[in-house]
Every structure is written in C-alpha cells, then in structure tokens.
Please model this.
Amino acid sequence: AMLLPYKKPITIGLAVIGVLGVGTFSYLYVSYSRIIEARLHGERDRAVPRVFARPLALQAGQNISQTELIARLNDVGYAQRARVERAGEFAIDRHQVVINSRGGDQAGKIVTVSFPEPPVVRKKGAKPPPPPPQRITRIQVATRSLERVTLDAPLLTAMMTGSREKRRRVALEAIPARMQEAVLSIEDRRFYYHPGVDPIRMIGALVTNLFGDRPYLVGGSTITQQLSRNFFLTEQMAVEQQTRQRSYGRKILEQFMAVILETQATKADILELYLNDVYLGHRGSFALHGVAEASKIYFGKDVRNLTLSEAALIAGIIQSPSNHSPFTNSERARDRRNVVLRTMVDAGYITSDAAERAQREPIAVVARAVDNEAPYFVDYIGEVLDATFPGIVSKPGTLDVYTTLDLNLQRDAQDAVREGLAVVDKALSRRKRGPARVAQAALVAIDPRSGEILAFIGGRSYNQSQFNRAVSARRQIGSTFKPFVYLAAFEKSADEGGDITPATLVYDEPTTWSYDNQEWSPRNYDGEYDGAITLRRALAMSRNIAVVKVAEQTGYNKVVALWKKTKIGEPDQLKPYPSVALGIVELTPLEVAEAYTVFTGQGRLKKLRALINVTSGEDTSKAKVEPGPVVARPATAYLVTQMLRSVLNEGTGASARGSGGAGGTTGGGTTIRHPLPPRPPPP
Model:
C-alpha cells in the first residue's frame, strides 16, 4: 500500500530503462554488425599478393629421385591419394608416380612418370645388387611418350603487404577433415551447436579446471569468440597487452560480437576464416597465420597431405604457440599433440588404435622452411613490383606474381652457401683474433642467355638478418673485374688493327708503378711470378701484375671507358689509375651478375629480370624486357668467354668445375694495398 503512490513513477522509470536498454542494444547490434560485415567483406576482397616460382618442369633422363619428385609435387600443392581422380592429385604406383596435371602444358591430363625398378634378389641370402641411379626413365601421357612436361608454378609465399605475416589462404574444402576435426576437438567441440557463445562449455571448463585431474587447463572461449577477439578486437587487445590488464568489458564485448558474427556468417565461413587467420607462432621475423602456412613451414607439405599426427600437432600449437612450437620444444609439442589425439578420440573423430599409432610417430619438422621460400628474393620482388607496376598492390581482387626463380636451383644454392659458410666459420674460429665475427654471404645465379634470375640468396639466414646483401651490399669486386681489362685490350686491338690475342705474352714479375707522385707495388696473391705468360694463363691463374700491365698497355682511360658502357654502378666511381685493373669498383652481387652477361651476350649486356608477368583480377601484364647496352664486339666477347673457361678448367676455379662449357673467375687473386689514390675501406 505504501508503494502505490510510487507505482506510476516506478513503472515509467522501468519503461524508460527498458527502452534505453533496447535502444542501446539495437544501436550496438547495428553498429557492430556493420563493422563485422565491412571486415568480412574486406577480408574476402582483399588482395594478398601470391608470389610464384617458375613452373615445375620434368624431363626424361632428369637426375631426380621418386622421393624428390613427391617433395616437388608438395611444393606445387598436389594432394597425395590412393588413386588420382581430380586435377591436382598424384598417386604412387611402385616405381611410378601418376599425376593428374592441374596446370602447365598437360593441364587436365594424366601424366605417368617412371623411375628405374629396384633390383630383384633371386637367390636366397644373396647380396642384393646396387640400386640403379635415380632418374626419370620415361614420361607418358596416355600411350604417348614425351621428352618434357611442364606442370604448375610452385607458390613461394603469400605475404601480407605492409606487415611481417605469412599466410596462404585456402578454401575450407581444401583443408582435410582430420585437420578440421583436430582443431574442433581441442578448441570448440560444440562449434556446430552453439550460437557463438557456449554456456555449457564455459561451466564445464570452470568445473574441470577447479576439480579435474587433467594436466592442462581447459578454455571456455569458442572458435567464434577467438575469431572475434583476434580478428575484430585487435586494437583493444593491443592496448591490454601494453597495459598488462585484462578487461572484463572486452570479454563481454567479445562474446557480444561472437553472437553477432554468427548471424552475419555461416558456420563454414567462420571456420574457414578461423583456420586461415589463427596465429601459430613465429618463424624468424615472420608471424605465421593459418593452418595451410603452418603445414608448409613446419612440415614442408601441402595442407591436404598432412598426416593425423601432423594435424594434431598444428592444432595443439594454437593454445600457446611459444610453448608448443616443435622448433623450440619438441617434448612439449609431442605432449600437446597427444592431448589433441585423445580429445579426438573422446569426440568420436578417430579410434583409440588410430590415436595410439599417431602418438608413436616422431616429431619431424623442416628446419629451414622459411629460407627455402627464398625470402630475400620475395623482398626484392616487392621492390621490383612497385617500380614496374606502380599501385598494382592496392587494386582490389587477386594478385598473382609469376617470377623467374627456379625453386630447385634455389635450394641447391642454399645448400652451397651453407656448406661454404661452414668452411669459412671453421677458418675464422682458428684465427682467434678479437671478438667472434659472423661471416655473411650472398649468391645470385642467372641464365646469361635471357638475364633471368634463377637463384637468389641475400644473406646467411633470413631469420637472423633481413638485410639483403645481394642488392644492397657494395664491395670491391677485386679479380672479378679482370675479364673487363682483357676485353678492353681486345677492343683496342680491334679498333687500331692490332694483333693481341689470348696467346699474347705478358711478363709477370715484381713491378712498381708511379702515378701522381706516388708509388704502388702490387703482388700476386701467392707471392709467385711466372715470367712470360699468355693472357689466357694470366687470367686462369689470376695474376695481378700481368693484368695491370695489360691495363697500362691498353690505357687506363680505355678500361674505364669500356666499363662505363655497361652503365652499372656509379659512373664516376672508377678513375684511370693503375689500380683500376684490380677491381676497385664497388658493386653488389646482382650488379656483378648483370655485368657478366656481356660475355655470353656477344658483347651486349642483358638486363636482369625477376618478373615474368603479373595477374591482377582478370588482367595479365607482362614485364617488359629492356635491351641492354652494347659494350663490345661479339668477337672480343667470345675471346674473353673462352679465356674464362680456362679459369675453371685449369686455373683458380678448377674446384668449381662442373659439366658443360662453363667459365668464370673466383675473385680470389686480388690483393690491393691502398691503390692510388688511397680509398677508405668499404663499410
């Protein structure tokens, strides 16, 4: 009775509160729905540049094993099956690999690649004969034999522009069921039955963590909540990490957005977005996102070829990537994998026998996966792309960049650099002079006929340093410059009707040169002198005195003038001094590689190229091939090319000699003691 006078005001107040509550809820719902829809739409339309290497080519007689071919098919994203039914699949049939080609010159056709059959031991106890050399014996399409086939171009990486993230988007149907089930079992078993927030899971997690005997904590967040937190609330999460505070308001907002997200997208859309976005640790300076990228980085496999054990390991990383990474703690990774396998049994996805078999599998990760994706080359491609096609990255739609890189040569180059650095490290460790110095290296391999870059390494390890020495580190090139001195000599002879040839003699003996009132006495690197020596032999043995004499007879100004025709490096850097013959010019490895195309290009320099074409949406743009300048006559360039072969056949580069008509110079025969005028050492 006492409340009756206040009944009307209370009713009005409650009504106002109700209207404000409904209005606030509606406003927040509409506002966050728009944010979610805009982000989802932007994610679907956002162009993530995909960088491809040159297409995989197979040739009859090629020295490649069956195991190596399977690895290369994984590189191009082929799925291994018991029988091939769809394009992009392959199967193993004893000594044959059957491929349903997805691209290349046999797209949509069945390609059978045969290898030598293993020897048969006919007598019991007899020693088996040695296995035949591994090579491709035959390539067939239907009943027709082919000498060569081209398949797809392998994907190097799909890197987010403006960030140090690595991810490769794939459709949900391309992610195998075992990978999806592993994630669902450990992260959100009731994913398909809750509206974004799972009260049953939250209560169960609380009870389990308080009273259970499991050796790990159970989380209460659903996959939809995790996606909302990591995909839509990144700014608020960043603030919390900086202040080291956990906001309960943010937790409520996360749940609210999860419910809205469930109304804006299907379960399949949410799961696909989550599996492509989930953070799975760092490799070097890169943050890894998505199960497809993790599959490539951790196991060197296409996601469709993951085993049950590998899928469970990736799913286990999600909870704590820093603690469960197989690169940093294989025991924790194994234990967490086994937890995931047990949850898959509990969820009814796999049998106990399958889980036990998977638990017995060792943890086998690929240690150098990031370096194998040619990260220095990808950085370089980004610069070339901006210069060649300005603004193309900002356009909506897909963006596919096709490059000249040969992925297999790239891996050979990586191995060569690693082995070479090991030798250098051993030599440096014996010196014990001052603090330990870490040796660095760079390598550029090109096709001199086309100028295409085939292999590209910018440093010792991309994980340790992203400084690209192949394009940014200028150093004096030393003996690498000597062929240009001989080229200038032959050019002068041709201009003036002289008779200088590779068989012309020059005296290799201790000599002192005077220039600008200064004296300079270079020496040969081994302290030995040959007396009368042919130009061919002088180059082969990298004789310093001989090449300086040739430069003197030719004219230092003519040597400088010939080099300036290449238009490489800084034009005014080279001066007509005696020391010019010993390579005081400072160049990057990329510039040196380009300069050497003069010899195989019949006197015309080939501009190096890394891009083949770019596909943006439905438009394909080919990279223009710029002609290089004419530096020398074809005849004189040929003479130097023949002399360079002597370097590998009998000279300082004999240890690098391989098959074919190769030529080169080691750059190791130059010793410059403050050439005239004195120059400070390069940084």
The longest strand covers residues 452-457.
